[in-house]
Amino acid sequence: MSSPKTPPSPRRRHIATDLVHAGREPAEQFGFVNTPIYRGSTVLYPTADDLANRRGRFSYGRRGTPTSLALESALKQITGGAGVVLTPSGLSAASVALLSVVKAGDHILMTDSVYEPTRHVCDTVLARLGVTTQYFDPLIGAGIAEMIRPATRLVYCEAPGSQTFEMGDIPAMVEAAHARDALVAIDNTWATSLGFDGHSHGVDLVIEAGTKYLGGHADVNLGFVSAAPSAWKSLQGTHGTLGQCAAAEDIFLALRGLRTLALRLQRHQASALEVCDWLAGRPEVSRILNPMLPTDPGHALFKRDFTGGCGLFSIVLKPAPREAVAAFLDALELFGMGYSWGGYESLAIPFDAKAYRTATSWQPEGPTLRFHIGLDEPADLIDDLERGFAAMANAASRPEGEP
């Protein structure tokens, strides 16, 4: 007869260890380490009584499978939420979170630096449903209290801000919102729960695009929302009612990505800081937008509230013609040009946030570029950027109109 298992230690394990073990039940998978992909819609019941009473661990594919349960359980453990729902994309995760807490006549306070597609959801779908969205300066902090109305249901944050990387004071906004019975949500895709523990800072709904670092290989579309007890019942009900269902293959790939997430984030962050250090010395660069840097205005808040960052940041160039910026991008060999980020590959895109700012004015002194530093060797990426700056200088020196 085998001896009973030793009870687990009450000491909280490191999150890197949880990433390896969370959501895995090899004994239920014939000893195989990873939960396999369960594809299916129909779940059979052994008896008519079981069917009538929906008696069984699973009832219908859209409502969950062993594969989705494994990822939900793992993310619940990592985020510390009361429950987690999976969605087909980061944007759908944001949409489900919003719809789970608002009704006609409600008022939302939304950071002006929010991911632009989320802004579009508020200005179109929610507006048609009678929900009012008001945008606020991402640096407002405790001043958010002055904007909260009796009808304010939700304060929606993103820290740092999308593309422009403003670092807001999340605990101050949480305190102000909860004092007036409003919930707080955050898009936590940049830091992930490894870099910012939203629920321990009082956030009710933590949203993440698993498409990014959770997948980690630019081949997954996935989102998830982790809810505190204050928001879990409504989130779970809304998610089920809307028929949200992430793809089995994407869930499996996210589970695989989860196991190496800590190691990859360490490399992304370290490499990004090395590249930023080099960029800071370039004459073409006016400033770097990255709260991980001691020179960034948001660094003190980052150091206070965050335990880590990632490989994503932006730079503001000194004034340069559009053709010169295009020449810079076209000369890059290791940096791809494409949307999304969080994979192993390095990326560079130009952006202009002027068109989607209403509460604040975005007036950079020159063109702006967003970089994602992948898993390449930083020295090689620096060589690539040097090649780009040489092409930029060459294009800028040509007389206007000359090819």
From TrEMBL:
It is an enzyme of class 4 (lyase). Signal peptide: none annotated. GO terms for biological process: L-cysteine catabolic process to pyruvate; transsulfuration. It comes from the Bacteria. The keyword Kinase does not apply. Gene3D superfamilies: Aspartate Aminotransferase, domain 1 (3.90.1150.10), Type I PLP-dependent aspartate aminotransferase-like (Major domain) (3.40.640.10). Keywords: Lyase, Pyridoxal phosphate. It holds the Pfam family Cys_Met_Meta_PP. The modification N6-(pyridoxal phosphate)lysine is found at residue 212. GO terms for molecular function: cysteine-S-conjugate beta-lyase activity; pyridoxal phosphate binding. InterPro entries: Cys/Met-Metab_PyrdxlP-dep_enz, Cys_b_lyase_bac, PyrdxlP-dep_Trfase, PyrdxlP-dep_Trfase_major, PyrdxlP-dep_Trfase_small. Its cofactor is pyridoxal 5'-phosphate. It catalyses: L,L-cystathionine + H2O = L-homocysteine + pyruvate + NH4(+). Its EC number is 4.4.1.8. Belongs to the trans-sulfuration enzymes family. This is Cystathionine beta-lyase.
